[in-house]
Design brief:
alpha+beta, lipopolysaccharide transport protein A fold, nine-stranded antiparallel sheet, 9 strands
Length: 186
């Protein structure tokens, strides 16, 4: 009789321990988000996708590109790299620098032309600042251009207009229309 009670108590205690352990595991699993998938489905057109990108190139003219982006997608057939949250640092052969930033960028790997869109800014080494919502860099002419409203400001002046051509080699800015200027700058 005593042996049967001991066996019963032992079985009940073991079952209770198993049930408590199962309950703890079940409660621990509730509320946990599923693990993120390691692979993200990409478009068939994308050959490569990379996060936290840093790309540097020195061109034939001696100009150095440095492109930083949160993500980049490369489409080989289109010779196109697409960037999110992009920063482009151009170092001219004379040492002058221009930093361009924007929400999105498209870089033609064949022509070396680039477009940047969304909250676009350009800052020169001497502090001149340009803002617009879209710009294009034309590698053949070493110029930055836009057909959108643009504001240029520095310590002494603020100039706004619609459309701009900025020659990087000549360091010459041309605003194309609706030009307004005021002194005082930033």
């Amino acid at each position: 009789m005593m042996k049967i009670r001991r066996k019963t108590v032992l079985i009940v205690a073991t079952l209770a321990a198993v049930l408590v352990l199962a309950a703890i595991l079940a409660v621990g699993m509730i509320g946990k988000a599923p693990e993120k998938a390691f692979l993200k489905i990409m478009s068939d057109r994308v050959d490569l996708q990379v996060k936290n990108v840093r790309y540097t190139e020195v061109g034939d003219s001696g100009m150095k590109w440095e492109i930083l982006a949160d993500t980049a997608r490369y489409q080989k057939k289109e010779n196109l790299a697409i960037f999110d949250k992009v920063t482009v640092r151009l170092v001219m052969k004379d040492g002058g620098t221009f930093v361009m930033t924007g929400d999105r960028g498209r870089f033609d790997t064949a022509s070396r032309d680039m477009e940047i869109e969304g909250n676009v800014g350009i800052v020169s080494e001497n502090g001149d600042r340009f803002t617009t919502d879209r710009l294009r860099y034309r590698n053949a002419g070493k110029r930055i251009e836009t057909d959108r409203p643009v504001v240029m400001e520095n310590r002494s002046v603020r100039v706004s207009g619609v459309g701009m051509i900025f020659s990087l080699e000549g360091k010459k800015v041309t605003l194309l229309s609706q030009v307004r200027a005021s002194s005082g700058g930033k």
